Amino acid sequence: MGLLAVITHRSVIVVLITFLATGCSTLRLDHRNAALPIWSTEGETPLRHHATPNRITPPLDIKWDFNGGAGFGTVSPLIVGDVIFVANLKGEVHAIDIESGRRVGRAEFGDSIEGTPVYADGTLVIPIAWGGVALYAHNLLQGDRKWRVRGAPVSSGLVVYDGTVIAGDVEGIVRAYSLSDGEELWSTALDSTSSIFSTPTLVGERLIAASDNGRVVALDVSSGSIDWSVDAGAPVHVSLAADEAAVYAATTRGRILALDIASGATRWEYLLPGEDVYFSAPAIGEWEIVFGASDGIVRALNVEDGSQRWTADVSDAVTAPPVLTDHLVYVGTMGGNVVALDRAEGTSSWQTSLEGRVKSAFAVKDSRLVVLAEPRLVYLLEPSSDAYANHEE
Amino acid sequence: MALPRLRHFLLIVLSCAVVWPAVGQYTFHFGRNKIQYDDFDWHVLKTEHFDVYYYSEMQELAEHGAAFAEEAYEELQNRFNFSLTHRPPLIFYSSNLHFKQTNITPGFIPDGVGGFFEFLKGRVVIPANGNIHQFRRVIRHELVHVFTYAKVSRLVRDHRMPPERFLPLWFTEGLAEYWSGDPDQSHEMVIRDAIYSNYLMPLSDIYRVSGSFLMYKEGEALCRFFAEAYGEEKLLRLMDNFWKDRDFRHVMEVTFMEDFEEIDRKWQAWLKNRYFEDVDDLQLTSLISRGVATEGFSAKPALYKLPDGTRRVYFVGNRTGYSNVYEVEVDSLYRPVGEPEILVRGERTDDFEAFHLFESRLGMSEDGKLAFVTKSGESDVIHIYDVARDELVATYAFDDLVAVYSPDWSPDGSRLAFSSIDGSGFSDLYVYDVRTGRLQRLTNDSYDDRDPSWSPDGRRLVFSSDRTSLGKTNAYNLFVYELGDGDLEYVTYGDRLDLSPRWSGDGRHVIFASAVRDSAGRFGAQNIWVADAPSSDDALAELAFSGSGDGGSDALSDAALGSTERRARQLTELTAAAFDPVWTDDGSILFTSFEHMRFSVRSMPDVDSLLANPRRSSDIDLSQSGDHWAFARIGIDDGAERVAYKKKYTLDVAQAMVSQNPVWGTQGGAVMAFSDLMGNDHWYVTLYNNSRGTSDFLKSMNVAVSRIQLHRRTNIGYGLYRYAGLRFDITDPDAAREYPTLWETIYGGYGAVSYPISTFRRIEVSTSVSWDDKFIPWADVDRQALLVSNSLALVHDNALWGMNGPVEGYRGSLMAAYTTDVLYSNVSYFTLTADVRHYWRLHEKVSFASRGLARMNEGREARLFFMGGSWDLRGFPMFSVRGQKMWFTSHELRFPILTSPWLSAPVLAPFGVANLRGALFLDAAHAWNDGYYEPRLTDRRREQLNIGETLGAVGAGLRLNLFGGLLLRYDVGYRYRDGFREQDRFFKQFFFGWDF
């Protein structure tokens, strides 16, 4: 009896320990949420245009905040159904219920994650930025590993297309893998001794990627063959954005290019004279392209010809791409502010201060804004019930 | 049981000690004094991103500094792609002498420190030195550190890495230099010398020069190479990637995507491509000149020819550690006759506290009066030393002048011209008439006027200044100042650094040192040049100069009068640099050379021949000179807010400790320290509890609160304390014989005053009042006393420190104290101590140290002194020798075994081995008691106390210095008793700590 008691006692402890050790480290998606992503990497589509037709009317209140466990990369969270997936620089992915702000799952995948995971067919594919593994495919419905591939680190976001997941690694090579088993389908080097930090974009069947040598390359998404290749004249570190006609490459040296999707020809170029200014990834609207910069100026250009529509001084550097809503541009700054600018004029409409710098792209669901900020917080901002609260207009 | 007792004792001692560390530099009893000579009236200028702290006299400079900081912020925000979320405090001083008084760092600040950024409160502290370009550059340099620290700290937290990891020093300092501006002349000088003298460290070995000037400059060149070879963005990527590996070489490989060896190879190839292009034309200084003084640091030569024809060269030097003025006799070819001898000993006395080794020239009059500058108290003074009579004949101090540089005698020996910085922080020219005592200010503006030299006719001064119209880009040209009418005239003009001019004896030429920028803006070597001097009636490029010669003046007028060319000839094509040339009357040149990372005094013969065959000759077009210039300022009118400084305390450090012991229970405590932004006012709070259970928790609480104020010349400390705990007292008359413990509780307060007489001496006075309760449970004895203790001490210290401890100089202290029980007279004793330590430098790296110590506590319940252990009487355990009276003497020969292991045994460098030294020692001590304790001591107790006999130790030891700060000590030897008649036993002893 005594022995049995001891065994039972120990069993309970083992079960408890197992539960504690594993129960908090699972990442599963309820079947109700297993729909298409609402906000993929930096936009609703792989065009990465950072725009939503939704109206998000300030003032915004913080509905909840969530401790994300570590800092974040520069790209956006992923929203699938009612779940926000946030990857952090410690190699974890947290799943957060968008309504309550509570964690519904967590798992660790490597030493660091800098790009946004992608979701397709019940699989979450995570780019791993350090630790020997390049990609990790996680079965979100079962909560277990589907496959993983070893290789050079992947510091940017991914593209999913027709059962294929495509990643650009820090050795400057774009590789395509089968989503079902991780088999490498093709690979193409963009340039010699370069790295890819910019998340590629997908326009139709053309994948466009850029390297930190400033090489912008259009590839056939099915074969990896190069359609065209252009020198942007300066390193490209931030995600490319596109519309149906052009792809927009923002550089680290005060230059942004609009390249023709079909030919790679330069449609227009915007250049700050004599300044080494880091531009953020741009947000693309029907008429305008809006981006922040390390000089604290948000610039809006006409998407057709690159002429300047307006500028707005937000004081602090802007590394996170803005997001366009139906009439406002939301900008996160290195000063820890979220600022709403009028889309037409660039005038400040509203702003609020968060606990730390906003360095990552926003995500949007309906009229709510998901913001990642230092020290390691995920915020959900939603229109205030009190129209006058925090209003600084 | 001994261990817990010892631990308890140590904890109480440590708790008490917490009261005292607040006195900063006096912590270890000895030490020089950092004196607050000035009561700075601090204000704060609040700009968009910074809080600029300054005092009233330097408002203009502070407003320039504010503009420089904002300008740098805008640029660095772009470079780092990062913004600061806090307002860094920038604390400006108008001169290095004011900067030396700062309490923001407890250490002493030597000449040459351009500023610092400290991590505790993120403060940036920067002095001006008369050169506004340098001020601007240092602000940028320190702000690069601020951004780097903020970015990397954030990165570490983002990745949840241990916070102690940081980038290697060569990279952070190199980046700060690289992003401060274009490479300056000192950068080119050091890199050129390192390459041509073949001591540049490969990238793989750069840790060997960590912390050195070479590291700064090589780090800067490396960052430039990275940017040019791999792209400027890769510098940020290095920071972004640094968390990936503790080995920064691997981080470089990951970032640059190349093998480390390949990166290193490319770096060396880049250097060769940059510097070996014109190597065929270069001259090694050591091959084209003769050494006059080549050991250690030797610079700023001046020549005196005695009536009998003997020539003597005078120079400032630092050949063994202390800085001195030296003299050396030379023959007709300027070859030294014998070794240089010390003329004036510096850094040991109040009159000659410090020389400006790199900045201030010596002036020699026709009749052999040597003028030189030293720091003396709060400001610089000019000393006049009669070299013929071999005595100091005068010292001139000037009320409103803070720093003084490069005095030069008028030909008739009646006046001294010099440059000086006043409270405003700008450098101007002055003339002092030694006969009348009249001080005349010649210039009064924000330009950096320096190194004046009298013309042979006594009517003009030639000097170097950035008042040239190219000055905004940090060019210095030469000017002549007409003493008669105050007119200014260009002597040279161009994008170059023209420094240290002197007239030729015939007044037709000016000799000077100059580094010329090439078309790409890069400085070449600093060579010796000669320019034609303007004649006194020359109207060439004369510039109107507002104000009389008797005082205030302004900048150059807008228009230059006339235009012409002036011939300048470059006499040398050196690999590195020459400074301070002197044209001797027999046609030779004396100068300071920089070669092989060493400053030497050298001579070159036959100026006429060099003039006839110059390396380069150019006609300087003076007509190109344009308008005067000014840097931007940010003041109240520009939106900044100006407020008076208000003291606000913030946490400096908080530490806690908890220990668990089966016998003594759980014990723990915490220490917290707070201070204000200027570091002038410190609060220390100590809490410690040594209870053995909940019942005696309150009873066992130890608390100490103290405050130390350092903002006045007189430092003041006071505090309150309560100490309680078991005490082990072998001599207490009521304590048990076997385990003589008692419970002692002390409440009280103390006050301490330290008045520095000079940098080297101070008087310390302290008083304390304590309620003392001793309870001995087994005997049910409860003795109480109200103790009043007063002490007076005189401390002297001018010792020079090496890495392991003092190596030269003298330290001594005398202390008298009286402790009495004012209520019951249970305690009444006086204390006398004398501690003298002398250090002789036998050789550059070998010292002999001697110490004598005498202590006496005399009277009722006089406490015991302790001795034993590695720090004093070796061979005997720590605190094992105890007596009311004792003497002790120690003699030690200290010598090197392994110096600079990063060079000779690089395998040791990763382990932090900074040096390994040896010691041969002899210690002797005698302790004894009488009166109150002695009669009740048994022989066994006497044996335990090691009293009543002369003890000693003879042996040898090793001192291993790790990371430049942790000194491990290992001694072996024989210990002796009974006056060295009895060899007791062999001992081995290991501990840590500095040499005495």
How does this model look, in words?
The complex is a heterodimer of chains A (393) and B (996). Chain A is mainly beta and 393 residues long. In chain A, the strands form eight sheets. Chain A has a five-stranded antiparallel sheet with strand order 1-3-4-5-6, with no helix packed on it. Residues 1-8, 14-24 and 387-393 of chain A have low confidence and may be disordered. In chain A, a hairpin with a 2-residue loop joins β31 (363-365) and β32. Chain A is built from one helix and 33 strands. Chain A is globular, with a radius of gyration of 21 Å. By secondary structure, chain B is an alpha+beta fold. Chain B has a 17-stranded antiparallel sheet that branches. A six-stranded mixed sheet of chain B has the order 4-5-3-2-1-33. In chain B, a hairpin with a 5-residue loop joins β19 and β20. The longest helix of chain B has 27 residues, at 132-158. Chain B starts with a helix and ends with a strand. Residues 1-28 and 539-563 of chain B have low confidence and may be disordered. The chains are: A mainly beta (393), B alpha+beta (996).
